[in-house]
Structures are given as C-alpha cells and as structure tokens.
Amino acid sequence: MKNKNQKFRNLFTIPINMIYLLTFLFFFACGIICGITFNHYFNNYNVNLFQVINGQFLNCSSLNPQPLSPPPLPRSVLLLPQSLPSPRSVIPRLGLKEYIKPINVEHDMSDEELLWRSSMVPKVKELPFKIHYFFKGHEGFYSIYVHSHPSYNNSNIDESNIFHGRRIPSKEVDWGKVNMVEAEKRLLANALLDISNQRFVLLSEACIPLFNFSTIYTHLINSNQNFVETYDLPGPTGRGRYRSQMSPTITHPQWRKGSQWFQIDRDLALEVVSDKKYFSVFQKHCMRPCYADEHYLPTFVNMKFKNGNSGRTLTWVDWSKGGPHPARFNRLDITTELLNKLRNESSCKYNGKKTSICHLFARKFTPHALSRLLMFAPKIMQFNH
Questions:
Q1: Statement to judge: residues 135 and 240 lie in one domain
Q2: What is the distance, to the nearest Å, from the Cα of residue 17 to the centroid of all Cα atoms in its chain?
Q3: Do residues 371 and 344 both lie within one domain?
Q4: CA-based angle 229:277:201, to the nearest 5?
Q5: Do 282 and 296 contact (CB within 8 A), yes or no?
Q6: 252 to each of 143, 238, 278, 321, how far by Cα in Å?
Q7: Which of 16, 107, 145, 215 could bond to 211 as cystine, CB 3.0-4.6 Å?
Q8: Is residue 139 assigned to a domain?
Q9: Quick one: CA dihedral 22, 25, 27, 29, positive or negative?
Q10: In terms of Cα–Cα distance, which of 261, 301, 305 is closest to 279?
Q11: Pseudo-torsion of CA 330, 333, 338, 342, nearest 10°?
Q12: Where are the transmembrane segments (predicted)?
C-alpha cells in the first residue's frame, strides 16, 4: 500500500516539475532577450552621445557658446589653372564657421555636386557676425586655388609656401579644348565655397603682378565693374569660329571673343558656375578651331551681364607678333623701361574716371625672367609697401 501511494504521488509531481521547468526556461529566455535589447540600446545611446559631444568639441557648445573668430575682410582670389569616404560612425556637425570658410580646399564632390553647392547664395545679406579683424601684413586678404594635373602630388612644395595645401581636386586639361573652361568653372566653384571671397582673378604660372598688393587689392575691391574682355572680331579667328548649331540659344551677332584672364565679382562668379544653358552649347559644338576659353565667357557675359562689365581685362598680353600664342619675355627682356611702360603708359576708365592704371598683371614671363623681376620689383613695383 505504501508503494502504491508513492507511485500515485509521483504521477502528480511529474506535471508540476515540468511546469516549474518550463516556467524557469520562459523567464530565462525573457531575461536573455531583455539583456540583449538593453545592451543594444545603451550601445547606440553611447555612440549618439559621443557624436553630440564630438560635434560640440568641433564647434561651439550650445550650453557654453564661445565667440566665433571674425572672418577676414572681402578677399581677392587667385585662381591658378595648372577618395576615401568619411567614417559613418562619427559625423561632426557642419556649423556656421565651416560653411563660411571651408577647412580644406580638398573634397570628394563631383563637378556636378561642386557647382550646385557653390551656387548657393545667402538671402540674408547681413552676415551673422561682426566684421572686426586686424591683419598683420596682407594675411587674410587673399585666397589661392591651384588647378594642376591630377598626377601632381605637391611633393616639392614646402609647408611654409603659400601654395601649400591650395590644390583643388583637379582633372586633366587639354589646350584648346572645352575642358579648359571646365577647369576655370571648377576653380571658381571651389573659391565660392569660402563666403569671404568677393573678387576672383584668373592667373597662370606665367603671370606677374605690376603693382604691390595694396594697390591691386584696393583696385579690385573698390571697382564697380567686372573685367572680362569681350569684342566682336570679324574674320576666321573671331566670327569664323561660330557654329550654326549653336542657334537659337546663341546667335551669330551675339558671338564674342576675348581673353580668358578675367577679374570678376562674386555675383558674376555665381552666374558662371550656375550656367548650364549656354555652356552646354559650347560643350556640344565648340570644337577646334573654336576655342571655348576665348569665346564662352566673353559671349556669356556680353549676352547676360553687359552693363556690369568693362569689356577689358586687367592682364596685359603682347599679341603684336601674331600667331596662336602671345609673346614670351625672357631674362634679358626685363628692363625698367618695360615695367614702367606696362604700369603707366595706358589710358582707360575706372569707375567712370580716367586713369593710367589699366593693367594689374602681365604675361607671359618665363621662369628665367624671375631673377631680374625680383631685382627690379622692390623699387619699381614697390613690393615692400
């Protein structure tokens, strides 16, 4: 009877033990799931918190804001025609300071992205900071952007050189082809990313300044006009380069020629990088012997912005010898008489008044001319002022 009672009790304890076991397994599984969930949540929370803190270190904290360094006065920009994805785990905040002045001229934007980004214009004309800045020498009054061959790696430029770190993402350029204008637009677009840049000057390695920095800066910043050379030239090297396929967007009477070495303000620079309507016509139809760098900007400016343009360039060039290229100046060509002639023996209008300062730059000067230029510059061009 005892054994029967024991067996009878065991029959009831088996289901009870199974219930306890299943209950234990259920709560154990719930615990694991909750642990994984909370662990994942707090990991994400730590990453997001780190991103916020990192953003505040890169920029001013919203709790304890520090005053931004005031930007420089309007700059003249020298444009010289010659990827790895960022980590996604930590993305620093792009604040006002980075928008006004990009930290580095290097970036991974395509040409299409760059032209779109650089064409943005602030609608609020008054900048959200005070313009109080003191300069030592001429620091901060200019920016330099270099478009070089993609294979060039800056290996021979010392860090103290003003050209160090100023090379923009570049593409190969062929003389006489439309990609020369693409390089110019690329330079302008990169320079427009810095909102303090107000005047834009295209130069080459063969250009020299004819006056000291203060004179050139004052002349550019105070001008109420742009300087894009544009004229109507009959004959095969002028009107003869027009293509009938360009009509009706660009007609033959609207066709113009001029120097590619321009000096323009920010408003016109924005129009140039934003233009697709007219430039696309040049990309399709301006092939040799049509040279886009001599016709696109003169034609575009004459059609759309003639009233704000002087019609001349500030870069002196000698075409008296004829041919497809201007005269070159070597070491023995450099004399005080030549430099004085380039500086003063002209007559033109500046802001509606007559002046003898008609050219701020000149070309083409070979590297061999450098020693004599440096010898004459301090006295004639007053580079020490």
A1: yes
A2: 77
A3: yes
A4: 35
A5: yes
A6: 38, 11, 14, 28
A7: 215
A8: yes
A9: negative
A10: 301
A11: -20
A12: 20-42
Alpha helices in the chain (DSSP H): 2-58, 96-100, 111-118, 179-192, 213-221, 266-274, 279-285, 292-304, 336-344, 370-380
Q: What is the mean pLDDT of each run of 10 residues along the chain (385 residues)?
A: 47 50 54 53 39 32 39 63 44 57 71 71 47 46 89 74 84 93 97 94 92 91 97 96 98 97 97 98 96 97 97 95 90 94 92 95 93 84 70
- What's the distance, CA 333 to chain centroid? 35
Whether residue 139 sits in one domain with residue 2: no
Number of other residues whose CB lies within 10 A of the CB of residue 245: 11
Contact by Cβ (8 Å): 264, 226: yes
Helix (H, G, I), strand (E, B) or coil at 210: coil
Nearest to 227 by CA among 310, 317, 346, 351: 310
Tell whether 161 and 264 lie within a shared domain: yes
Token representation of residue 134: 């003191």
Instruction: Please report where in the chains the tokens 């992205």 appear, as a residue.
Output: 113
Q: Which residues fall within 8 angstroms of residue 270, CB to CB, at 6 or more apart? A: 118, 119, 121, 192
Are 138 and 218 in contact by the 8 Å Cβ rule? The answer is: no
User: Which residue type does 147 have?
Assistant: H
Pairing of strands 142-147, 75-81: parallel
Largest CA distance in the chain: 137
Tokens of 185: 């637009």
Fill in the amino acid letter for 156: N
Identify the CA nearest to 265 among candidates 70, 73, 77, 72.
Answer: 77
User: What residues have CB less than 8 Å from 349, skipping those under 6 apart?
Assistant: 310, 355
List the structure tokens of 30.
């719930």
Coil, helix or strand for 247?
coil
Q: Is residue 305 part of a domain?
A: yes
pLDDT of 132 reads 29
Q: State both tokens at 262.
A: 């321009």
Cβ atoms of 278 and 299 within 8 Å: the answer is yes
**Number of domains into which the chain is organized:** 2
- Residue written as tokens 């008054």? 126
Range of the domain at 340: 75-83+91-380
The model's pTM: 0.69
**Nearest 5°: phi and psi at 140?**
90, -10
In one letter, which amino acid is 272?
V
Q: What pLDDT sits at residue 385? A: 58
Structural contact between residues 229 and 311, judged by C-beta atoms closer than 8 angstroms: yes
